[in-house]
Amino acid sequence: MSGSTAVTRPPRLGQATRTQREQLLNMVADGMTLTTAAMAIGVQPAVVLRWIRTDEEFAAKWNHAVQAQAAMMQDQIIEIADAPMASSLDLDHAKLKIETRQWIMSKTHPAQYGTKVQTSHSHVHGVILLPALNPGDAKQISLKDVSKLVGPGNHVNVPRDTHGT
């Protein structure tokens, strides 16, 4: 064959141009979900997830887009809360929209938007110091006398006399 023509292959399924990737990132940064943005540029969401896993440059840009998306969700929450509600059904719908955005933000950015739960555990162990007794001054003290020394509301464990005295 004298005239050789170059064979052009169609792009592989899931392959996207740099422009399509930038479009996707902009849509996500503007508040669109991954699925909706992926479908808008003609790729499956799984393809976008693969880009995030395998392309470090795209992953870094993705993280910035998701940060911007959270800021957009903040704005959306305020807009939803400020909008007038005509009925209790509208109010319930608005609450659901707000709570959904809050949940997403708390899961994707827990340090910024997560619920901070602080737990404090304290268990007090008390020790009662009694004055030293000289062996000659030793006398038997009743439980009532010990209770007076310890004070009301405190518990005292007194060993039982196992010798019958």
Textual characterization of the structure:
With 165 residues, this protein is mainly α. The protein has a domain at 18-113: Homeodomain-like (Arc Repressor Mutant, subunit A, Orthogonal Bundle), CATH 1.10.10.60. 55% of the residues lie in helices and 0% in strands. The chain has helices spanning 18-29, 34-41, 45-54, 56-82, 88-108, 110-113, 143-150. The model has no long low-confidence stretch (mean pLDDT 79).
Highlighted features:
Arc Repressor Mutant, subunit A, mainly alpha, elongated, 55% helix, 165 residues
Structural class: mainly alpha
Q: Separation of termini?
A: 121 Å
Strand content: under 5%
Order of helices and strands: HHHHHHH
The outline comes out as elongated
CATH superfamily of the domain at 18-113: Homeodomain-like
Overall CATH architecture of the domain at 18-113 = Orthogonal Bundle
The overall pLDDT, averaged over residues, is 79
Which stretches are poorly predicted, pLDDT < 50 over at least 5 residues?
none
Number of helices: 7
Radius of gyration: 35 Å
Overall helicity: 40-55%
- List how many beta strands DSSP finds: 0
Write down the CATH topology of the domain at 18-113.
Arc Repressor Mutant, subunit A
**What is the CATH level 1 assignment of the domain at 18-113?**
Mainly Alpha
Helices and strands, with pairings:
Elements: H1 18-29, H2 34-41, H3 45-54, H4 56-82, H5 88-108, H6 110-113, H7 143-150
Question: How would you concisely characterize the structure shown here?
Answer:
Helix content is 55%, strand content 0%. With 165 residues, it is mainly α. The longest helix has 27 residues, at 56-82.
